[in-house]
Design goal:
Length: about 250
């Protein structure tokens, strides 16, 4: 697939993008960067004419507004939100074909949009201290990957159970939570990664039911100690897993 770096362009009107009718990916840099003048608008109103567009990355851009239209524009399948996407997130319900959603460093984001994101496959969240996943996220189901990093989350959100039969990867990084007893229902989960989760001190009793689990990676002190081969208190719960990694070393 052909690629073209437009980062050194100084066009003040982003309509020039529409000349690339087969464009599949757009990555807009920080509007305060040296490459793009701060007065440039992010997206032209006719961006919906890019029928081949599949990836749109608006990380580090702010004050984005989506207006309703009678005819739906072409919708991206991958969306990255960074820093201050609040106004954008409120209108995210219109992105009905979204498959990947990455949210990072959104200090004031308190909830996920209330919409049925039935096509969403990947949800990756990091550094969003005010985000309440327990009280938002209804309608999200069929996820293949869920990642949470640097969160005050106390437990996995209840709606994640809706993805128990489809989840292929779960990554918990620097998060204060415990795995619920219902975690044993994730019988199709093949990969679990736990990094520096201080409150996660043991696995639930039903871990043996996760028969599809093929790779377990742990880099969290209290839990790693309990998962030592043969000797750890939780070893019997995870002994069925073919590949266990403690601090980057396969045991």
């Amino acid at each position: 697939m052909a690629q073209k770096d437009l980062s050194n362009k100084k066009e003040e009107d982003p309509e020039f993008l529409l000349g690339f009718e087969k464009l599949r990916t757009i990555i807009i840099p920080d509007l305060d960067s040296e490459y793009v003048p701060t007065e440039v608008g992010v997206l032209p109103s006719s961006i919906g004419n890019l029928r081949h567009l599949r990836y749109l990355d608006l990380s580090f851009n702010r004050h984005i507004r989506i207006a309703k239209r009678h005819r739906k524009p072409n919708q991206p399948q991958v969306l990255g939100l960074n820093h201050k996407p609040d106004a954008f997130a409120k209108r995210m319900g219109s992105l009905t074909n979204l498959r990947t959603l990455v949210i990072s460093e959104c200090q004031n984001l308190e909830s996920l949009p209330s919409c049925n994101m039935t096509t969403l496959e990947t949800l990756d969240i990091s550094d969003c201290p005010k985000l309440d996943l327990m009280g938002s996220g209804e309608g999200i189901r069929g996820l293949r990957f869920f990642g949470i990093e640097n969160s005050s989350l106390k437990a996995l959100p209840h709606w994640l159970q809706e993805s128990a039969d489809t989840l292929e990867g779960l990554c918990l990084d620097n998060t204060f939570l415990q795995l619920p007893d219902g975690f044993q229902n994730f019988t199709m989960l093949p990969k679990l990664k736990i990094i520096d989760c201080p409150d996660l001190v043991s696995f639930p009793e039903g871990m043996y039911r996760l028969t599809a689990l093929r790779e377990l990676e742990i880099s969290s002190d209290s839990l790693a100690e309990r998962c030592r081969r043969e000797e750890g208190e939780d070893w019997s719960k995870i002994a069925h897993v073919p590949k266990i990694i403690l601090y980057g070393r396969i045991i």
